[in-house]
Design goal:
With 729 residues, this protein is of the alpha+beta class. It is built from 21 helices and 20 strands. The chain has a 7-stranded mixed β-sheet with strand order 3-2-1-4-7-6-5, with helices on both faces. Strands 10-18-19-11-20 form a 5-stranded antiparallel β-sheet. A 4-stranded antiparallel β-sheet has the order 13-16-14-15. A hairpin with a 1-residue loop joins strand 18 and strand 19. The chain starts with a helix and ends in a 20-residue tail after the last helix.
Length: 729
């Protein structure tokens, strides 16, 4: 039995704790620290805790616990005496919100406002926060305080903890979930099925739909190596499992899922796995698992392949990295290519609920501006292995341009002239987000193809045209002021002049008409229902790209030398943000590629492969985008040649190499007497469709390369200052 003195001492300690327990609101805690000029790290050091813990106290996500609570209360009390709160009645009126400018091309686009509630990507932290609050024990008062200090952007209460979480095990053996914004949740689940149920019922993870007729994004859980071990999953797949892309049937975790009444999709349990229960009415109960150790985040898309960061990245920073991408683009659905395709349908959903006014019942209706159903394919638009071509050609037959639509990006080079060899430098420029920029304002077909014989060309009808463009000389448009022999043809990916009839997408034929030539199509497959299907997709990716570049210190107001200097500094600004930027660019490039996803060995030649079952398997749309990329570049090459007499010597996808008297793009790009870029030529800037400096080499270096290779070859993507540049976007 304790003595009376011991009991009185315990009561006095309790009373002292209660007296100091009355903490100010979270926003006031931050104000007091800022007023004193103290950092979160300084307070954390004094209180023997972590900086993230102090941050969670100031945000209202967590509350201090003894023994730090009493000391923290004393610190705030003393700071409040020195820095009393200002009189709110005398505070100046807030400035009115700025009205966003209208985006237009080719003028630079303004940087969008920050996407709340995503937190900026920070450097890697060595350990987890030591103070957490379970999602099921949030106090109403705390949530209200957090909302008062939040940005004006409304947050969906169902998904208040963000779109995803990284599940890890801390030093104490506790399973924790790192969420966007530094929030850390205790995870009570002991098994994987329990983890899925906890995520659906308690974690408040997910992302609200991007379109009012779309669907909310399922929450994503990223499982670290420690989480894999805790939940009985292998650290890596066996060679047989890697080939199959899924965990072998009969694994104990798969049995747990089945016993719990949960299900997997037909893809099974792989690097990107979906575990779900049957929906309750319209409410989905699905969780997507991302397992980096199994190859879910390939280095070619998500990481720096020259110096990979993700394997050593702390779980909290991985959550910030993927969370920033999710907030600016969308919750990842797999590879960046898969996510790029899913973004199209998320922004242009194929169906909507339509109410019958007579009965009051709802039924499914199609949206006119979306891709809503499968249509018969066109023979000239499909790749060689498509089932429709079975028996049409001899084995190993190479289809000609008159048999196949060959709209691809440029891959072209030529020898340097004597005058160009006298220039000291070769400067490579790269078109920003070339594939995405080409999709901006592009009219595409939304229905099936209509076959026409000897039609008159109509640029308003997207599709494929069999026409002879061998007579078109682009230099003719400038009355001989341009040397057409030093420019590639705009009608072939190789830059060679066509020799007869060939299949072209509408933008290519329209460019021939724009140059002043008559065209006489022999045959055509056109779409009569049209729309700018890719516009919202482009705008979403544009805003994500511009916002991330602004975080790296490069804004749309910059041009010329200021832009080049900012780009040089951005390479060392924030490695994690650079990964976000790379993923955004890969999403744009991969999304367009997915429109004509080929058979990757899943089935034999001429047998249907899974991608053909998608409504978004539209090779004609991909062809139109790539046609626009090539035509846009050629148009600017012509204008640049006419203004300054300079010509490219190599082009690789969206990178162009020009001889130059100096090492900078400013040394050869034409300008008006006022110092502005020549109209219609390449312009330096951060906006999609504008160009940046990719790298510089000497002409002597190029000659050495040609000598080693035994002839002229495409050096466009060998000239790189930034090793990550020049990869097609």
């Amino acid at each position: 039995m304790p003595t009376e003195d011991e009991l009185f001492s315990a009561v006095d300690a309790l009373l002292e704790q209660v007296a100091q327990n009355d903490l100010p609101a979270p926003a006031e805690r931050k104000r007091l620290r800022d007023a004193a000029g103290l950092s979160q790290a300084q307070i954390a050091k004094v209180l023997d805790t972590r900086r993230e813990t102090v941050a969670s106290w100031e945000s209202g996500r967590n509350e201090p616990r003894p023994p730090q609570r009493a000391a923290y209360a004393r610190l705030l009390e003393k700071l409040a005496e020195r820095f009393p709160a200002p009189d709110e009645t005398s505070a100046p009126d807030p400035e009115p919100a700025a009205v966003p400018e209208v985006f237009a091309e080719p003028a630079p686009v303004p940087a969008p406002a920050p996407h709340a509630p995503a937190a900026p990507v920070a450097a890697v932290r060595p350990a987890a926060s030591s103070t957490r609050t379970p999602a099921s024990s949030r106090r109403p008062g705390v949530k209200k305080a957090a909302k008062r200090s939040a940005p004006a952007t409304a947050v969906d209460g169902r998904f208040e903890n963000g779109p995803l979480a990284v599940v890890d095990v801390d030093d104490d053996g506790q399973v924790v979930a790192y969420c966007v914004g530094g929030l850390v949740l205790d995870v009570p689940a002991k098994t994987l099925p329990a983890l899925v149920d906890w995520t659906v019922e308690e974690a408040r993870l997910g992302q609200a739909r991007l379109h009012r007729h779309g669907k909310d994004a399922d929450p994503v859980l990223v499982l670290t190596a420690a989480a894999l071990e805790r939940y009985g999953l292998p650290a890596e797949l066996s060679p047989e499992e890697r080939r199959a892309g899924r965990l072998a049937a009969g694994h104990k975790v798969l049995k747990q899922i089945a016993r719990a009444g949960q299900q997997l999709t037909q893809r099974g349990f792989g690097a990107w796995a979906r575990v779900y229960r049957v929906p309750e009415g319209s409410r989905r109960r699905c969780v997507q698992l991302c397992i980096p150790a199994w190859g879910a985040l390939p280095v070619e898309e998500w990481d720096n392949k020259n110096a990979p960061q993700l394997p050593a990245m702390h779980a909290a920073d991985l959550a910030r990295f993927l969370g920033t991408y999710a907030e600016r683009v969308m919750t990842p659905r797999g590879t960046t290519a898969v996510t790029g395709l899913e973004l199209m349908t998320a922004l242009r959903p194929p169906t909507r609920a339509q109410k019958d006014e007579a009965t009051g019942e709802f039924s499914q209706a199609f949206n006119d501006d979306a891709l809503t159903r499968l249509y018969d394919v066109v023979e000239c638009e499909v790749p060689d292995e498509h089932p429709i071509l079975k028996g049409k050609f001899a084995r190993h037959h190479q289809r000609t341009p008159a048999e196949m639509l060959m709209e691809e990006p440029y891959s072209w080079c030529r020898p340097l002239t004597d005058d160009e060899c006298m220039q000291p430098y070769l400067v490579a420029i790269d078109v920003n987000m070339a594939f995405a920029a080409a999709a901006n304002g592009l009219t595409v077909g939304l229905n099936g193809a209509t076959h026409l014989k000897n039609p008159a060309f109509d640029p308003a009808l997207p599709g494929s045209w069999l026409v002879d463009l061998s007579h078109v000389d682009p230099a003719h448009a400038f009355g001989g002021a341009v040397d057409g022999g030093r420019l590639p043809s705009p009608f072939t990916p190789t830059g060679e002049r066509p020799t007869g009839p060939a299949w072209y997408a509408t933008p290519t034929v329209a460019y021939a008409v724009e140059l002043g030539f008559d065209v006489a199509p022999i045959e055509a497959y056109v779409r009569t229902q049209t729309g700018r299907y890719l516009d919202p997709w482009y705008k979403r990716l544009r805003d994500a790209y511009v916002a991330t570049m602004a975080d790296l210190g490069v804004t749309t107001t910059m041009g010329g030398q200021e832009f080049l200097d900012a780009m040089a500094r951005s390479k060392d600004a924030d490695p994690a943000l650079a990964l976000v930027l790379k993923a955004i660019k890969a999403t744009a490039k991969g999304g367009i590629g997915k429109l004509r996803q080929r058979n990757r060995g899943q089935v034999p030649y001429y047998e249907p492969w899974p991608a053909l079952e998608r409504k978004t398997w539209r090779p004609d749309i991909r062809a139109a985008v790539l046609s626009s990329v090539r035509v846009s570049m050629h148009r600017k090459m012509l204008k640049t040649a006419a203004a300054a007499g300079v010509y490219p010597v190599a082009i690789g996808t969206d990178a162009l190499v020009y001889p130059s008297p100096g090492p900078s793009p400013l040394d050869f790009l034409p300008h008006t007497p006022e110092g502005k870029p020549a109209p219609g030529s390449f312009r330096l800037g951060v906006s999609p469709g504008m160009v940046k400096h990719q790298g510089t080499q000497t002409v002597l270096w190029a000659e050495q390369q040609f000598e080693e290779q035994g002839g002229v070859f495409n050096i466009a993507n060998l000239i790189k200052t930034d090793p990550a540049a020049g990869e097609g976007e």
